[in-house]
Amino acid sequence: MKTKTKRFDCVKMKNDIQAAMLREYRGLSDAEIQARIEQDLATSDAPAARMWRELTGRQAISKVAETPAKYTAKRKR
Q1: Which residue ranges make up each domain of the chain?
Q2: How many CA atoms lie within 13 A of 28 on its CB side?
Q3: How far is the C-alpha of 65 from the C-alpha of 76, rounded, in Å?
Q4: Has this prediction a pTM greater than 0.85?
């Protein structure tokens, strides 16, 4: 019987991703981690982030830095 050589190890990939996330969030409080995750989801174009925004009713945040417009309303006399 011939055995196949694995070209992709999903358990190793999961462990690598979890290790990277632990390094990224090291030293942050739970609230800071939550805020960073929400910011990443709000600015990402990944399919999971788009679905999160659709389910939570949030709009994508543009990554472009620009000064906000100033609008003023004239009062009727």
Answers
A1: 29-61
A2: 14
A3: 34
A4: no
